[in-house]
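Exercise 7 asks you to align residues with tokens for two separate proteins.
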Amino acid sequence: MSQPAPNTYSFVSGKNWKLSLAELTSFLDARGCTFEVQEISHSFFTVKTDSPIDASVIDELGGILKISETAAFVSTEQLAEAFIKENKQAKNQIKTNLPLDALADKMPSASSGKSVFGVSVYWADTPYSFNKAANTIQRFLGSSLKDELKAQGKKARFMGFPRGRGHPQLTAVEVLKKGLVEDSAEVLLCIGKHKTSIGTTVAVHNPFEFQKRDIEKPVQRKIFAIPPRVAKIMVNLTHCTAGKVFLDPFCGVGTILQEALLAKAKVIGIDFNRWCVEASRRNLEWIDREYSLENADFAVLQGDSRRLTSKIREEIDCIATEPDLGPALRQIPTTAYAIKHLANLKPLYSDFLSEAHEILRVDGFLAIVSPFVKTRSGKPVTMNLQETALKIGFKQVKPFQAVVFAQDSSAAPSLKDTASFVDVDEHHKIGREIHIFQKTK
């Protein structure tokens, strides 16, 4: 067992792990936090920061499901020896190395009856296959921790899983309903390529809040509606922080504006459609009341996003937006149709980017969605937006180029060239390609 550096955390990501990592690193960078990404996987990231991370940041992130504070590291090779090769001596050594006493110390005694605790196991793509061993590891850790709690005079019940669950991982809803965060009662084991972190969950995202902002806002629009979680990610990709002036020039019913307002930005929305303008105002007023925001500052204007300079009289710090993605498609199109589909939209995007460059302050960020169209050939058709943006004077942001990765991080070289992020559901015919640009002069 080795002790982690202070302020070492594991972040469990949503289904689009690259987008989640880009959001997290942008969020930390915007707040001046020095950090190093030590482990990257499709399900979690281990990050060392220069200062403690408050558990409340989970509410400010759209792509992170859980945050665990690391108590210790154990060798992944030793874990494989114990549970894949089933070496009893290695298993006993693992139990000796686990910080069971420290984990149990954090869990309170139940005032009556037994308290409840849980264990979730996540794993990276390692030289060893932990798919089959993960359930065994989860039960071993739970049993070992239960013995330690008993030795401390604490009665506790080890929380199991519904039959048929594929991975030994508690959902956010289960953690919330059982109050496991408040009791420091969920243990996260994150198996990395070389070392495995073990710690206590200090924060879990609340899916009910995202659901509320999605389906309880006064005015809805179902077609091409951007989910609040993706909207929040886009706001964070623009390095938006409290007090900055934030613009969505294709605001629709205000979903992106809502997330920017919750980030305490000064929010401006523009839409050509008068109905959308009124809908956004009503939804922002609802957010202001529902979350009791202090000094919420927002305005929604009717106007043409291709003529922003005639409408916006102040310098903008951040822009995040989803322009028109084109008409809804009833079936997956041919490649030729998809190319024509995007060609019809290209002038709108080009004109908007020119105007956005004029009103954005130097060093300001723009996060923009362009269509990602599936085709019958199986090869998607996308808009070459970066070429247009570069000609206008934007710099394309590759979020991972400025990130400090641990020296042994094998994923870092390929990640550093990542320039855009695709977000598309299996049943959708048109998805989102999210680009990030910066005005440098």
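Second protein for Exercise 7:
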Amino acid sequence: MTPALPFSREQIRTISQSGFYLLFLCAPLLDIFRFDILEGHFIIFGYDWMLGLESSKYECLDTSHSVRNVLLNFLLPLFILLLISALIVWKYGRIYCGWLCPHFSVVETINRLMLKHLNRVTFWEKPLATDSAGRDALPWLLVLSICILIAFIWSFVLLGYIYPPRLLSMNLYHFELSFGPSLFLLVMTIILTIDFFFARHLFCKFGCSLGIMQSFVWMANSKAMVVGFDKSRAHLCQSCDSACDKSCPMRLPVRGIKRAKFTCTQCGICLNACDEAQADNPQGRLIHWVSNEEASAVDRQAAPFTIKRLKKSN
């Protein structure tokens, strides 16, 4: 008998997302990882990382020695990291996006905020219920203000990855920022506000090169982990208002073929939605994570009904 885990899947994901988000925010301030543009080298865990070329400032090094230092201190670690990451993505898909990515954490946070105050998950969708929430200006201003606040914090953190964060903090506190950092904060805050308010999941689907690369690697493995649909019990979906599709932060057809879920982040939110929808069903949810041969079958089958037919039956 498999022992029960002390935390649920969603709790583990929340812990991993929160931990990585805090790491993203604190890494430059704590000198865990950043590039010091004033010194011209990386800082990792408080130590100057100069690719083994620091002695070149004081003594003449031949070209072969410099190349060897770059290969061993930068290119080789980078290759190993990329290889390990590719193997994980090959087997599990965009697991980084759904379980670690700070941007996806913001996507989910603002989705919940908009759903609570505006009865919609994205700006481009119609409200789920017709009431005053979608017409009043105050909820819109609240959501927009939070987007601006998060965008400014992100802009400050991103600038801290290349500009000494302590010096940046002092200059900002005393209103003594130079033109370059001030322009960066202004432009980046505007860009991120537009992203967070209008195009969160659209950026994840079409604008994030890291996410798209993961999708291509994942799609190349027909046996990789994917959300599968138990089509033998498809009739049970007729009593559900597509809860799995509506819960997906990426707005994907959860019960469709793998190719239709090209940008799936493996967050598992659709599984939670199906759990709630089938709470009274002793057989449980109709969608599950599957791998190997079961995963290969996902790209050869689709739900034996369409959303239009489901709506007509209701």
